[in-house]
Amino acid sequence: MIGRIRGLIVAFALLATGAIGGCAPADGGEVTVFAAASLRDVLERAIPAWTADRLSVRFVVSTDSSAALRAQIEQGAPADLFLSADTANPARLADAGLADGEPVPFAAAALAIVVPGDNPADLRSPADLARDGVRIIAAGPDVPITAYADRLVAALTRVDGYPADFVARYEGNVRSREDNVRAVLAKVELGEGDAAIVYAPDARSSDRLASVPIPAGVRVAASYAGVVVRDAVAADAARAFLAWLAGPDGAAILADLGFSPAGSGVP
Description:
Blueprint: E1 9-14, E2 30-36, H1 40-51, E3 57-64, H2 66-74, E4 81-84, H3 88-95, E5 104-109, E6 111-116, E7 136-139, H4 144-156, H5 166-172, E8 174-178, H6 181-189, E9 195-199, H7 200-204, E10 209-212, E11 222-228, H8 235-246, H9 248-256
Parallel strand pairs: 2-3, 2-4, 7-8, 7-9
Antiparallel strand pairs: 1-3, 4-11, 5-11, 6-9, 6-10
C-alpha cells in the first residue's frame, strides 16, 4: 500500500449465507473501506447487520481523517469504498476521475463542544472558549471537523454578548492539532485539553466527556458522503453496501448513534 494510513484497521471476518442483489459470488471476497474516524462506531454495527443475510464477505476498515484517506487513494492505495465526513473529499475524487459514480450522501451530524467529565476549567458556555488560559484541542487544517468548527466559531461571533475578537481569541487558545477527530476526542478524555469541538455522535459515544450547550439558533451541520473507488476490486459489494447505508436500514443505525438523515441539517 502506498503511503501511510494512520487510522485504526478493523477486519471483520463474517460468514453468512444468501446473496447481494445483482452481485456475483466472485465479488464477495474482501471489501476495503476507507472511512472517516467519526464513523468507526457506525461501521462496527452496520457491517455485521449488512452481512447477516448476504454473501460471505470480509470487510477491512481503515479509519482516519477523510482528507488523509482521500490523499492515500489519490496516491494509489487500494480501496473499494470511501466514506467521508464531508462532501468535498469524495467530490474531489470524482472530479479527478478516481471514483466509480457520483458521491452518495448518507448522513448528517450536529456539532458539540466537549469538555472532560469533571470540567476542570469550569466552562459553562461557548463564550468561555475565548477565556485566557483555556486549552482547546483541535484538528489539522485539512481535517473536515476543522472547517465545521470554524463555521461554528464564526457563527458564535454573531451571538449577543460574544466579543468581536472571539474567533482570534478562540484560535489563540488552540494548544494542539490532531490527525483526526477521534484523536481530538481522546486528548480531551485524558484531560490533556479543556475543550474541543467535535461531532455530536462522538460526544455521545464517551462517558468520560460532558458537553457545553450551544446557543439556540447556532447550528452547523456536517454532511457525510461516500463513493466507490474507480479501481475497486469489490465494486459491486461496495456499491451495494453504500446504497444500504444510505437507505432506511443504514439510517436506523445512524440515527441510533446520533446522526441525522442526509440533507436534513441538524436535529
